Model the fold of this input.
Amino acid sequence: MMAMTKYYDIMIVGAALVGASAAVTLAKQGFKVALVDRKSPLVGLANAEWDSRIYAISPGNADWLKDLGVWQRMDAERITPIAEMQVWGDAITEALNFNAEDTFANNLGYILENSALEQALWDELQTLDVDISIGDEATLFEANEQGASLQLSDGRQLKAKLMIAADGGNSWLREQAGLTQQKTVYEHVGVVANFEVELPHQHIARQWFVNDGVLAWLPLAGNRISMVFSTKYSQNLMALSPTELAEQVAQAGGNVLGKMHCITPAVAFPLVKQKASALISNRLVLVGDAAHQVHPMAGQGVNLGFRDIVELAKVLAERNPLADIGDRFLLRRYERARKADVIAIQGLTHALYAAFDSKQALVRTARNWGLSLPNKHPIIKRALMKQALI
Done:
């Protein structure tokens, strides 16, 4: 029996948030799209009442998801707008305040669960003519002047004019294309958990730079928050009972929301900064974590990935209709367009990590002075907020 070959305009490897959003976007632009992943991102999503994997979605990306028809598929009561952000240094009592009203915006972004957005994207995919292949390993990738091909473990061969690598930080497709990456593994580890709190969070996202690392509380629906703690002492946190963890997290945040009760188990994950040597190769584009990873303190990881898709879709839409969508000169426009955004976010998060990980007295003084400065200078504050609102 001969192996079956199927032909597409675009093939996407990786079906999580960024890959699924690429499939929705490009199918709606009229391309014939295939979406491939060795495992379903939906496995286990419906088992937990609250997902400990939380994202802060920027207003710009929220508008884009609304335009795609995806946002409306989520339960509005589980989406929490951020009205304000408060940031404390380790030696200042006055918080740096970012308020949506200062920039005449409705909010600074939205907090939502990974599972809710993943399910919404897949629900939208079911309405589109996208070939979805889940459960088969990709075994061989090849690209030449005629097109790109992917061999699957079941013997099928898929061919396309353009391949998109959305298969994460350890991207197999990136490796097959011979692209390398600069990688920094942080000494800190991220610990996440969700809590019920005694006092209303008032839709305020709170962040503390403390001796143990960076602690963030993100508002969830009702009297609930999601905690992200970037710390060197993750093993100590993971060893605590849920009651002990709640007490320690409440104390680290100055008990500003009163007593806390843990509603999801704590989960630890490594923190890395990573950047691919190039965002394009022969008939290949890298997006999301396959292209870049950043420290989560600014909540920009998935937002960067979504902006990759927005830019790629724009480049393909604005091309000469007769142009080959896998043409390297065309794909270079995408790479150039994404460079500044990625460098800016990676530079900001890495510099903040380095400044607040330092124990030197001069650095500590400078970083706390830097945090207090925007409150005194509205122009600086507005410039910082404009970056956050993209």
About this structure: Residues 360-367, 369-377 have pLDDT under 50 and may be disordered. The first helix runs from residue 17 to 28. The chain has ten helices and 20 strands. The two ends are 52 Å apart (CA to CA).
